[in-house]
Predict the 3D structure of the following.
Amino acid sequence: MALWHPYTQHKTAPLPVEIARGEGALLWDKDGNAYIDAIASWWVNPFGHSNKYIADAIYKQLTTLEHVLFGGFTHKPAQLLAERLLEILPSSQKKLFFSDNGSTAVEVALKASLQYFYNKGEKRTKIIALENGFHGDTFAAMAASGISFFTEAFRGSMIEVSRIPAPTTGREQESLDTLNGLLATGDYAAFIFEPLVQGAAGMVMYNPAPLDALMAACRAHNVFTIADEVMTGFGKTGRNFACDYLTRQPDMMCLSKALTGGTIPMAITTFTQQIFDGFYDDDVNKALFHGHTFTANPTGCAAAHAALDLLLTPEMQENIQRVSARHLDFMDEILRHPRVKTARVQGVIFALEIEREGEEAYYGGFRNRLYDFFMANGVVMRPVGNIVYILPPYIITDAQLERVYAVIKAALAEVF
Ligand SMILES: *Cc1c(COP(=O)(O)O)cnc(C)c1O
């Protein structure tokens, strides 16, 4: 086999499952076995696999203008997409910069933060991030990520990042105090965070109010706030964006994953007017010198348009509330299980932690036994250590959700 897979130790990993087809919340392997995609293929696919509405929009764009360079050129799909996104984004967001994936969206936000102060001649070269955050695997994004085994090998080659605890219940004050200590130094350009839900950490959740307090502290010290909504964006938390739960608005946002309904890789970093103005100058050297070959690919934009159409239908909004309500019922039930340490829900995101001393390793043995059990029972879920989470396509049926819950209950009875 010629393929090198992501996050995979090829010496010990089982062979990958060959998927031949997908439809709605289901995937079929090459032998015809069906699996419920309970994690929306790494959180990208809210509207189901092989969605015909998005596919038609992509085909139409492919046969009109599949791609054109974005340096010196523009096109309607990008212009209209920007206008539509500005209608639903927090009103502070005024400028959109396209790139290719979540990591590049973060890379752009961090580079813009650092260069904004460089352009001004102000020395602010460090970044603040949350413990156990995840922001991607390119260098700056990786530096901001706090899950150590992802980044350990690259220590010493990274921008300087200081970490504060996520403001989870009981740690709000500690989080704010640590932040204030850092802000007092004047060394920091930006604070990046996953608003309300830290995905890769195992769907760790916290409340809007303490995040508002952290953002207010940053504002008081002219430190930019970057809401990385790569995972949380486009309905996952129950509203269009996790930032919609806040009273404050961020200076930048990172969007990707569900942006195109899980069809074409694309990302956007959004900015306030103030940040854009920090690059607007007669001096060409003050421009943001960042770009990718496929920036604002028209086909990707067409896919994002179609995805937005679907997201904003009343039916899809009802689906989000339906899934969320089902999760809450399941949480009430499963919290009584003796092996369940804790459970939590935010929008379509459900997570539970299994009581299992010493088996919290991200890719440890217990995690692998759970994963194998779920796959053998026809459900795609990727536990994070002892944390099992569901983040299904919004169109998952009630029967499919019930099946996912039943398989989790069976795992609690059978997997040790
Ligand atoms: C997945 C993710 C990223 C990285 O996105 P890629 O497309 O994998 O590069 C960044 N931030 C968050 C919050 C994510 O969940």
